[in-house]
């Protein structure tokens, strides 16, 4: 197993863990936490490919990861702001209870 | 694969697991921080110093704090009556397992075809990054700046207390 | 007119310019028919206009008939001048229908026979029309009466001038129709309606045979025209063909067709088995009885036989006769006696005259059969005048006695109604055949003379002589009851107005004067019909046996008159008392009074069969056809029920079920939309898994 594959597997595992968390926890904030984990796993993927890929001097992977971090931060801010707003409205962050869009 | 890698990987994964499994949400947030830290170290081990430090600064320094703030601000009841996991947590688990299986399979499948460059680590200076940001990636930079501004304003508006009259 | 050329029968000459009257001959029947049509459009209160239309049209027809008569006379004179002897006949023929190569032609003919009939019909008709304006003056359906009367006159004139058996038949039927309409004129009376129906149906029986004869004739000869320049059905070529054909019972086709046509004539002219309708036809108004059932319509049958005489006579050897003519003779003679017997015992003034008419028609037929066209036709012409006179006189009597028709309630009217009495007496004497002065004597003698010389048998002669005796007897009885003795009615009798009595006078004149043209001394009529001229020659009386015959008939007449006088004159028994003869021989009198039970016979046989058949038909209709219809309806109902079941259960059921399933499926599907974010996330992840797996799997080398 080459190093790249290892890093990729770790990233995959982290991604799956994050997904599991996003899918199974009741609290909305924990869903966001899961999402952060997934994003981070993707970042790891990017850096790993940058390091073991053909043209590291192009800095593509690194740049992508940096932008990803920036975007993730913005998204976390907005998402958490939303959660706070929802909590203010519904007095709870339990996702199972929020089914107003039920068809 | 060196020992360092396994250690760091284990730390990260453990942190992640803890982040999604723990009952107390604050503990989850803290475990998340550990996972972030593990990831930063992984970045460092991959010779992406700037990315690693940016990870520490942004994620641990800002996002984690943000999460903690949000948790603290949205405490209604400490632990919900029906437990912390949703009713159909099995299907979520299964799906996540499926995702991992597929990804793992994809990786292992293409082991032979991956072009692995086992050369020395690339030397990346901040100057290079700065040049790249201002040169090749100036547009994404500007867009991200815009995005951040929008996110900032949006978050403020979303989380702002509503006016008394509009209730 | 003198310069015109002529069409000669038997000579194939191309038709040159004809006299205008011959071309316009069709106006003679057309004018009254048009008048009838116009009258039918008028409202009831327009009495004077309708009467004027009818009388005016018939007068014009009379004028044209006289011109036509003159034409026929001049034609004859011209022929004689050129020394050609065939009968003078002018025809106008045209094609009516053409199918394939067969033509159906119609046309009219002007010859001595049709000329005399035209004059007679229009003259008598006109007098009766004028009479009717007085007789029907108090009737509210005056206009309708003249409409029908005009139609009748037109149709009768059509029968007279027809050169085609088909056209004759069409007008014949029209005459029958108007007879029905006029007999049943007072249709509110059940007796009148029944009588009209009876007349129509009885003549119909004859007409069926007539039509068969027409069809057979057409099939055999290919033409229905009488005279057509050599190709007509009464001309030697066609007759020869008919004689060659043999039908059943030893008859030739000519004889069979002749008998069939005679059956039609027998119906219309009231010969023996089919006479039952004539007495009942007296339900109609008296002018109708006078015109139709005395002078003209019943004479149509005799005229028909005269018209088809070449057919009836075909195959006869010189001095001999044919089967058809023999039958005609026997039927005629039997009818003459039969009807005369019944007339003796009748008490209704019009019924006596009706049976008298039947009897005299029998004489005419016998005359045709034994003596030829001229003999029968002469009696027809004279009979028309004096019978019309007698009927009109009877009408005058009825009118004067306030609608009383029973002769036992009349009497002594000689003083109250002198004009009527005189004219009636003249008519009665003419009918009896009072010698020398009255036309009836000469015409009846012509028939008796022919009967005396008949080669087949002598019986008809004796029958006819006996009939003459009876005629004198019953007429004397009638006159004695009506005009002599004392009045037995309830209301006072009065004379009729001039509009009724003047036609009576005119007819009385003719009743006497017509005899002159038929005497043996000056046989003008016979000669005219034969296309010859006749001069006045007293040697005509010198024929062997003629004087003896005249003497015999005179004796017979006086015997009859005397008997009647002895039994009935001056005596006026009360209505309840039996008649003199009835007291003497009640049983035979009863038979005669009950009309020898002919109606009852028909009722028991024909009518009973018909009623049975009607019941069968009713059963068929009700059960079989009705059952079939009900069955169909029942099947339809069942089908409708089935359809409804199918519709509600199967179609609706399946449709409703389908919709339900759809609804359930939709409900099931909507459960995907939980409204919860995590559910959607899961689905998303699942999709990603599936997609990636597929991609990887498909890219395996």
Give a quick set of tags describing it.
heterotrimer; A: 103 residues; mainly alpha; 76% helix; elongated; B: 167 residues; Four Helix Bundle (Hemerythrin (Met), subunit A); 2 domains; globular
The strand count of chain A comes to 0
Which CATH top level class of chain A fits? Mainly Alpha
Number of domains of chain A: 1
- Going by CATH, the architecture of chain A would be Orthogonal Bundle
- Principal-axes shape call of chain A: elongated
Q: Ends of chain C: how far apart?
A: 129 Å
Quick take:
The complex is a heterotrimer of chains A (103), B (167) and C (701). Chain B contains 6 helices and no strands.
Description of the structure:
The complex is a heterotrimer of chains A (103), B (167) and C (701). Chain A has 3 helices and no strands. The longest helix of chain A is centred in the C-terminal third of the chain and has 31 residues, at 60-90. Chain A has a single domain (3-97), classed as Helix Hairpins, CATH 1.10.287. The mean pLDDT of chain A is 89. The N and C termini of chain A lie far apart (48 Å). In chain A, helix 1 (3-24) runs antiparallel to helix 2 and helix 2 (28-52) runs antiparallel to helix 3 (60-90). Chain A has 103 residues and is mostly helical. Chain B is mainly alpha-helical. Chain B folds into 2 domains: 1-78, NADH-ubiquinone/plastoquinone oxidoreductase chain 6, subunit NuoJ (Four Helix Bundle (Hemerythrin (Met), subunit A), Up-down Bundle); 123-167. Chain B has 6 helices and no strands. In chain B, helix 1 packs antiparallel against helix 2 and helix 2 packs antiparallel against helix 3. The longest helix of chain B is centred in the middle third of the chain and has 25 residues, at 49-73. Chain B is globular, with a radius of gyration of 21 Å. Chain B starts with a helix and ends in an 8-residue tail after the last helix. Chain C is an all-alpha fold. In chain C, strand 1 and strand 2 form a beta hairpin. In chain C, helix 12 runs antiparallel to helix 16. Chain C is built from 27 helices and 2 strands. Chains A and B meet through helix 1, helix 2 and helix 3 of A and helix 1, helix 2, helix 3, helix 4 and helix 5 of B.
